[in-house]
Amino acid sequence: MSQATVDLYCVMGNPVAHSRSPAIHARFAELTGEHLAYERRLVALDGFAEGVRAFAAQGGRGCNVTVPFKIEAPLLATHCSERVQLAGAANTLAFRPDGSIHADNTDGLGLVADITRNAGVALQGRDVLLVGAGGAAAGVLGPLLQAGARHIAISNRTLAKAQALVQSHQALAKELGAQLAASTLDAVAGDFDVVINATASSLAGDAVPVSASVLRPGGLAYDMMYGPAAQEFLDWAAAHGAVPRDGLGMLVEQAAEAFAFWRGVRPPSAQVLAELQTQLALQPRH
Fold this sequence. Notes:
Helix content: 25-40%
């Protein structure tokens, strides 16, 4: 097989060195017989648009977008999916032969698939707390509503950002008979079946941003980060009687959605997640 027949993809972010996406997509390609190469690309905080254009000019077929560029990504797209329009954020770009850029957001699909399918936790009729109101939270709110959550509270350091997210999703919530609420981190009222940490606090090594009173005994506490970055949140959740889960399954499931978006082929995500979990379990914890 010549190098010319291999399609090029990447993940762009800052930081990006920790990303497991290259290994996941390489395994997807292996299992589906698709010929592609997938790499990490660190781009300067003010250089995302330039990085995307350069990658497309080099023959790139698509890229995943991670922190902090998910809000910026739709601005470069010729066509945005309904999920992107609702979220105002994209994590997947496809570069078409005619020069157009198509944007999608697979984060919410990945999160819902991991919670409902892999963790076996139903979202229908549940109370959910979404901590954070940035690109990660924006990307998952619509799919959480569509999965049947009856009440979703969005808690954020800046109240205005949480309120803006509520406002942009209010019509969908009303259509689905769900309730949305916004609050600051220290003013969350009540407790929840599912608590999702969508802030970058784990990545920064900061303390858990909400009180343990938000957790219901036996409820699910989910950190979108995975590996060492999520450990403090997971330990905190377990210590307060919740069931902890990191975002590794979300990572694999959103990657599977992106792979299908690019290649038209659905990879076996459950198999790849199981393989990854086995690999990680064998690694020494620092």
